[in-house]
């Protein structure tokens, strides 16, 4: 991070690119605190002696308060894509500060369950919109060589936001925790105000002088921005001279393949069982005979997520997206299988049987490795790929609809896991997740291309576009 005492201008123009990262850090922290809020708070406010609110919350109401953010996020993902194309990436994210703040104020000063649900729904809208606009903005301001690293920082800060919620929410009052969460989007708005608009967006909208200034702020005054600006102008000019209707753009072979990959990665991400594993952390620790308090167990998992996601940010532009996705799918498949075996044996032979006692270490190891594998690959990369595989004329649509699909899947998995667990058994549920990840491994191996360090044109060629030179030769 920037040194203390650095001026705002230096921070924006950045030492080593930090100016590009700081607003993204805070945006992701806001989204992460929203996601992690329910774990410590719902547990507290459902207790009989709860004094944090002047009303009681039963189990069913607690489930709605916890999960309603998924529906809020799903509702906004599609329209936010249209908004950020209309007014720009920067203005869109600045506008999101208002609903985020309003939502947290409703949660902080809520006088009924209805106000809590409304506040969570509104923060879900703002958080879901951030998850679409921030990766799109990042992919457009980053250089090809560090695009993956910069993109993965968003997921890293979401995990830090979740860990922040676990720690602060567990050891402060609900009121203090809510006030801190309210401050985060406000701080983001102040910092992000000094960031430039996406140069890509500015060029597309014939604001070339502003685009040059934006590139200077992002790259530094010693960087030759003219060559990069000329490339952006050339692509924008080609798009204007060869206008393509949206229906044609979205039905091109490259666009269809990008759509299939983006939606499939979102599907495998949510059906990996990540939420089922996270929600059962305390149960798994208890099953292994660990005498760790639920709050401590949850914090441990949060720390593991942060470390693994940080590791991913260091290696994603070295090892590549594809290898990390393959590794992630394989390890998660093995870990889900192991968890399924443990719970199946526990249901069949009982908790105190010798065979279950002999593998009491298995859930802890499998859980930790599962979290590490998810955080290395399937956590950050599906969101990143949605920004990398698509051309700008369909990027907003694909990113927003993929986000909607992701949040709806998250809500479905979250709301049906307990009933599925009761109907077919915990072991069988984890085997189901393992089977889905095996299919995901095969899909990635045969379909997903490697985008590490590749330009937009190179990625389109990998998706099946015809080489530009070939087209020019045919015209001659």
From TrEMBL:
Cellular component per GO, a single term: plasma membrane
GO terms of molecular function: sugar transmembrane transporter activity
InterPro entries xrefs: MFS_dom (IPR020846), MFS_ERD6/Tret1-like (IPR044775), MFS_sugar_transport-like (IPR005828), MFS_trans_sf (IPR036259), MFS_Trehalose_Transporter (IPR050549), Sugar/inositol_transpt (IPR003663), Sugar_transporter_CS (IPR005829)
Taxonomic superkingdom: Eukaryota
Membrane spanning residue stretches: 65-87, 94-111, 117-138, 150-169, 175-195, 258-278, 284-311, 323-346, 358-378, 390-409, 429-448
Alphabetical keyword list: Cell membrane, Glycoprotein, Membrane, Transmembrane, Transmembrane helix, Transport
Keyword Aminoacyl-tRNA synthetase: no
Xref: SUPFAM superfamilies: MFS general substrate transporter
Membrane topology: Multi-pass membrane protein
Predominant place of localization: membrane
Sequence ranges assigned to domain Major facilitator superfamily (MFS) profile in this UniProt record: 24-452
PROSITE patterns given in the database record: MFS (PS50850), SUGAR_TRANSPORT_1 (PS00216), SUGAR_TRANSPORT_2 (PS00217)
Entry's localization field: Cell membrane
A Pfam family this chain is assigned to: Sugar_tr
Family stated for the protein in its record: Belongs to the major facilitator superfamily. Sugar transporter (TC 2.A.1.1) family. Trehalose transporter subfamily.
Protein name in the entry: Facilitated trehalose transporter Tret1
Phylogenetic lineage: Eukaryota, Metazoa, Ecdysozoa, Arthropoda, Hexapoda
